[in-house]
Design brief:
It contains 16 helices and no strands. The chain is an all-alpha fold and about 425 residues long.
Length: about 425
């Protein structure tokens, strides 16, 4: 078999991927003062072995399977050797297996997939301290909630994937795709969970403003309720609570925009950029104006936010998403495009559910651009008014303070809808 440029490039890529991981593993072993087991030479060789195995024996299933079993046995042996030295870590042996599979990816003609796997693997191995620190931020209850969430997802996702078409409207690549709905719950919960971890990492002492902005990425309604309760117990926090509620509303806009961009694509997101930019500018301006007029500084605060990876908030979002999707389809069928606007009422509870549902239907071509934009903006406007009612349920004076900027922001949302139509 002649040696081609393509073969040389593939070998160079596999060696580079293995070398990249091997350097990190050798450095980690040196820093931690332990035997490295596998390092700067082993990883490139293992990655190369995976590539050569597929390249030369890819069509011989027996040889192919036997080699995989042998390599897997070798990697497990490294783990057993380390355990005999009271070193129970499995990262190095698992990384060897992954980099071996990455080499096989190159062998089957998928170099981009191999590079992606290698970069993700390097990111995970190199971020040990950060990941351990994040894990230490969670309580036992929060960790158990996350594990239950992931367990349910691992059960439900394969079921929805294998169901196939169950109705002319329900099934893969149809108006409502259950698999996409589950993935949407995972996506939104993941964004919220990362924000939840950041709040845990920052802790107190960083100020209500920062906590509120990040809290809005988890749930702007929950953040507003938490800020209102703090203000109720300490009326001196009136202005800073108002600023914080506005900031949580602004981060809600950012979060929903990202979700719309991800689900519906660039076209709808571009059409929504100016309206969201106007609303975001307004809320930030009002926050700055109110903060400048007050003398209060940053205050320590703990936000009472529920773990987004707990089953309850995840199921709640999934249920809202499904209900809003169903309502959108029914109203569109019987009332036309104008009927879809009614689902914007969901913005009183969760703009994210409305945004995700509308973006999903836009992506399938069920509703047009104008209807999608109008419904989402109406939901944003109603969400502004809902913040007033949430604050009112805790502290009347705070509701009065929040009312004028939220009313203006809400009315601007409605005016933009009129211009769009």
């Amino acid at each position: 078999m002649p040696i081609s440029i393509e073969l040389l490039l593939s070998i160079g890529l596999t060696l580079s991927m293995g070398l990249m991981i091997g350097i990190e593993r050798s450095y980690r072993a040196k820093v931690e003062g332990r035997p490295k087991g596998a390092g700067i030479r082993t990883f490139p060789l293992v990655c190369l072995a995976g590539f050569l195995l597929v390249h030369f024996f890819g069509d011989e299933l027996f040889v192919f399977g036997t080699m995989i079993i042998l390599f897997t046995f070798s990697f497990l042996s490294i783990t057993l050797l380390r355990s005999s030295r009271d070193d129970l870590g499995m990262t190095t042996s698992t990384t060897l297996l992954v980099i071996f599979l990455a080499g096989m990816f190159v062998g089957v003609g998928n170099p981009l997939g191999a590079v992606f796997v290698s970069v993700v693997t390097l990111s995970l191995t190199a971020s040990k301290d950060i990941l351990h620190r994040f894990a230490g931020l969670l309580s036992q209850k929060e960790l158990e909630s996350a594990v239950r969430f992931l367990a349910v997802v691992l059960i439900v996702l394969p079921i929805t994937y294998t169901l196939g078409p169950v109705h002319p409207l329900v099934g893969p690549d149809r108006v409502f795709d259950p698999t996409q709905a589950v993935l949407m719950v995972i996506f939104v919960s993941s964004i919220s969970f990362v924000s939840f971890l950041v709040i845990k990492l920052l802790g107190t002492g960083k100020g209500m403003e920062i906590s509120a902005f990040i809290g809005g990425l988890v749930s702007s309604a929950a953040a507003t309720a938490s800020m209102s309760e703090k203000c109720k117990n300490n009326s001196k926090l009136m202005k800073i609570s108002t600023v914080s509620i506005l900031l949580s509303h602004s981060s809600m806009l950012v979060k929903d925009y990202v979700i719309i961009l991800t689900v519906a694509g660039l076209l709808l997101a571009l059409d929504l950029t100016i309206p969201v930019g106007i609303l975001l500018t307004l809320t930030v301006f009002f926050s700055w104006y109110i903060a400048r007029s007050g003398s209060e500084g940053f205050e320590d605060v703990d936000l009472d936010l529920e773990n987004p990876f707990a089953l309850k908030p995840a199921l709640k979002f999934g249920l809202l998403f499904t209900v809003i999707w169903a309502s959108t389809y029914i109203l569109k069928t019987y009332l036309g495009g104008v009927g879809v606007y009614i689902v914007s009422i969901g913005g009183l509870i969760s703009t994210t559910s409305v945004s995700a549902s509308i973006a999903s239907m836009y992506a399938t071509g069920e509703i047009g651009t104008v209807t999608s934009l109008s419904t989402i903006l109406l939901a944003f406007g109603l969400s502004s008014f809902s913040k007033i009612f949430i604050a009112r349920s805790y502290f009347k004076d705070l509701a009065k303070s929040v009312a004028w900027p939220m009313i203006i922001t809400g009315l601007v949302s409605f005016i933009i809808v009129l211009f769009i139509n």
